[in-house]
Amino acid sequence: MIDTETGRSLEVQCNLCGARNHVQLLGPDSTVRFECGSCSASNWLRPPQPRPRPSAPRPVAAVTAAPKPSRPPARPARQLEAQAAPIAAAAAPTPAAPAPTRPPAPVPVRVVAAPVQPPVRRMPWSSTAGKLLISLLVIGSVAALGSVGTVASFNARTSNGSSIATGDIYLGNTVNSGTECLSFGASPTITAANTNTCTGVFGLTNVAAEPGQPNASGNAATVQVTNKGSLNTTANSLTPVKGFYLYAPAACANTNTAGEPFNGAGDLCGLVQVYIQEYSDAAFTTPFKCVYGAAAGASCTGFDNAHTLKNFGTTETSANPLLLTDASNSAANPLNSLSSAYFKVFLYFPVPGAGADTYQGVTATLNFTWTITPN
């Protein structure tokens, strides 16, 4: 409602959100468009027109105005109607002659505006800015809680204790049931090379020109080779060379025998014939394989002038060794940990005829090297 005398604004409810807005009317006949201060919706307001006041004829006698009526109770906000108080006319004495009548005097009317209610305040979180502010407050609260040292967090953990342990591999070499010779020597520490020089297969001296047949005493020597380490040998291969193998590190050397008054010029390395037989037992009784020499099945057939000390030293080299196995005959694991292989080396000195004297005072030297590599 509005006070037409004081020009106070009118409080009107928004047709969309229901919020109350204060609107200043320009006049009783003006239609007002206003925008809701809460939801920005457009509203149109045309104030209701006041009803015509009833008029009644009044006597010629003097008219006494009724006392000013008290303020009527407030009507709803959109009702702009005013109601005039009834006019009480006092009776007057009858004149001698009727006086001419005149229109009734206007009665002053005061339109009272309804008490203005305070605008409805929307909660801050109902607007976009409020929602954003609330979100920031929530994020800040969560971050603050996460930074407190006493707040626990979920976690999972595994660990692996790791270590590396190596095995060892070294050879034992026993000639003619003598003392075993180890590849790393007398010291219990394995050297980088893990190589040792053991007793020679043959240590024959003062050999006669005709030492006898292959089985004659002193013309054969036994060799037992044992993998003393904790690792098996790797598979046999020539490219590259690995596994369990036998070779001559150098060619057979023909030199003068020290202490002899006469040293002949004969080549003893090319004269002495040799073959190597492997056995499957430590007693050296069961032939297993002919390693070097002419073969017939598992056994060597005997001596021939093609297999000599000189031939062995030049053909069975470190680049092209003889691949060996133990009695298991496994090329994949040719000499397992703590297993042994058994060999016998045979020599023969043929009589060269008229040139025999050229072989007096001569020494032939050939090394046999037994090697294993771990897997």
Please, could you describe this protein's structure?
This protein is mainly beta. It has two domains: 1-60 and 110-117, no CATH class; 171-372, no CATH class. Helices cover 8% and strands 22% of the residues. It has three helices and 19 strands. It has helices at residues 128-146, 268-271, 309-315; strands at 10-13, 20-23, 32-35, 42-45, 171-175, 181-182, 220-227, 237-238, 241-242, 244-247, 253-256, 273-279, 287-292, 294-296, 299-302, 322-323, 340-348, 362-365, 369-372. A six-stranded antiparallel β-sheet has the order 6-5-7-17-12-13, with no helix packed on it. Strands 16-10-19 form a three-stranded antiparallel β-sheet, with no helix packed on it. Strands 1-2 form a two-stranded antiparallel ribbon. The longest helix has 19 residues, at 128-146. The two termini are 107 Å apart.
Q: What's the SSE pattern?
A: EEEEHEEEEEEEHEEEEHEEEE
Strand order of the largest sheet: 6-5-7-17-12-13
Count of the separate structural domains: 2
Measured as a percent range, the helix fraction is under 10%
The oligomerization state is: single chain
Brief rundown of the structure:
Helices cover 8% and strands 22% of the residues. It has helices at 128-146, 268-271, 309-315, and strands at residues 10-13, 20-23, 32-35, 42-45, 171-175, 181-182, 220-227, 237-238, 241-242, 244-247, 253-256, 273-279, 287-292, 294-296, 299-302, 322-323, 340-348, 362-365, 369-372.
